[in-house]
Amino acid sequence: MAATGMSYTAVTLLSSPVSASDRGATAALESARRRTTDPAAIVPSREVQAAALMGASAASPLDVLVIGGGATGCGVALDAVSRGLRVGLVEREDFSSGTSSRSTKLIHGGVRYLEKAVFNLDYGQLKLVFHALKERKQVIENAPHLCHALPCMTPCFDWFETLYYWVGLKMYDLVAGRRMLHLSRYYSADESIELFPTLARKGHNRSLKGTVVYYDGQMNDSRLNVGLACTAALLGASVFNHAEVISLIKDENNERIIGAHIRDNLSRKEFDTYAKVVVNAAGPFCDSIRRMANKEAPNMISPSSGVHIVLPDYYSPEGMGLIVPKTKDGRVVFMLPWLGRTVAGTTDSSTVITMYPEPHEDEIRFILDAISDYLNVQVRRTDVLSAWSGIRPLAMDPSAKNTESLSRDHVVHEDHPGLITITGGKWTTYRSMAEDAVNAAVRSGKLSPSNGCVTENLCIVGGDGWEPASFTTLAQYYTRMKKTHGGKVIPGIMDSAISKHLSHAYGTSAERVALIAQNENLGKRLAHGYPFLEAEVAYCARHEYCESAVDFIARRSRLAFLDTAAARRAIPRVIEILASEHKWDKARKKHELQMAKDFLETFKSSKNAQFHDGMHTSK
């Protein structure tokens, strides 16, 4: 139950009965808020977290062990620990290292699903849209520094199209109800060009009649994911990245899963940890975890590849996206402003499951060709700053003929006692997915939570008390102290671009980063043209479980996703700062450099492709 702010007197006058469970939920929510907003609060060290997992024995097990540190896994950990349960989480790579950092960056209800629901008279699809729109609003409110409403423009090249999209998007508003972000509306062709100067007036020999603009949410996905992990840690969960499940432990008497054998991939040490229930939230890899319990377990997911590219900012105006619901081959394409650049996509095709998926050149070309039909600027392969592929773990539907017709709904399944698997779904609904998984875990393990789910109204760390104008404090009261190559320390201004970046990336914790920049002479930018500071590397190493150079360039900052060439130039300095924080030797630094370079090779920007007269040729 949300804290209402009403006094006890008001409650009694209204004669509103408050159950014991409601009082417990309110107390739990207030306790969680106090801990996440405490300015002195620091997440336990990685060593402390490892010790807590090792200390979970068969005689004194965890209530819940979560496998997977993506949005769903970290959401499960946060939900469970906020119910008063004893929780552990292990992640083979880093928090958000898989699908959760490679999303479309949209928090959406699903306009396409609404269209399917109407035309197919599919109540199941309509329920999905209702539910996702409810969750969309909660995600934005619980992480206001990382999420915001984004207007999206849909171009119309004939009057029927105009009417069709206007009516359809008004229905989207109607379904959202009081959770609507802003009303959709029609703009004439001239008004549309004023709002989106690079939009073409003609397409496929047709003239632009106007556009319909509607609103969805946008986020910084991996920072939201890391925020979930850190919030769970502050509330008492033992979250442990770079730790791989080697095998599951079964009870010898009844074959129930009672724990896991884990390898710390940094120290290479192995240990056992025990839990009353294990939740498998490994995304695309959930079937491999299930087969540790039952080698004959059938597939639950159908993997689908989604490719995105990043282009310079001039492709789209700040604060306005472009979404084409149906291209000439029937697919959806979009261009969205994101962190000062333009992200475009996406594809939807069957794929194989791999740790580091790479975009194929034909997929990149498809996106470029598709957006070029709607723009009045030359769309060039050489403009691609970064390109990446993510694997969507879609819930399997044996009757589906293609991945696009698979439902994005999630599945919670216990096909082996003690092992709950949650898969499918989408970023927007991570919170309710986690709630369903924890409910299933409570039933399976006969757990005794101290209260019900409170995550609907629980802000992640940095979000509670944040305001859009919070950046002004950084700009007015902090200085960036920069060390030159000659060793001299010189002051630099904390300009608006840097202040806004820090405020949006770290929320109310941004002043901690600014203090490091000011007091420890780490105020230099890591890459020319980008607002990321050296101080962020130190902060993330101390407070966000940043354990490698890739952790920083890909998930703590988004430099790898925004500009692979800039990320490559920043790597040596990132490693230098992390080495100082984590006491790395020369061998580790050399290893980190190679790992980071190899990682960036999977991002097919124009810089790591071969060209002839500006056209890309395969290697």
From TrEMBL:
Keywords: FAD, Flavoprotein, Mitochondrion, Oxidoreductase, Transit peptide. It is an enzyme of class 1 (oxidoreductase). Its EC number is 1.1.5.3. Residues 63-431 form the FAD dependent oxidoreductase domain. One of its GO terms (cellular component) is mitochondrion. Gene3D superfamilies: Alpha-glycerophosphate oxidase, cap domain, D-Amino Acid Oxidase, subunit A, domain 2, FAD/NAD(P)-binding domain. It is found in: Mitochondrion. One of its GO terms (molecular function) is glycerol-3-phosphate dehydrogenase (quinone) activity. One of its GO terms (biological process) is glycerol-3-phosphate metabolic process. Its cofactor is FAD. InterPro entries: DAO_C (IPR031656), DAO_C_sf (IPR038299), FAD-dep_OxRdtase (IPR006076), FAD/NAD-bd_sf (IPR036188), G3P_DH_FAD-dep (IPR000447). This is Glycerol-3-phosphate dehydrogenase. It comes from Dendrobium nobile. The lineage of its organism: Eukaryota, Viridiplantae, Streptophyta, Embryophyta, Tracheophyta.
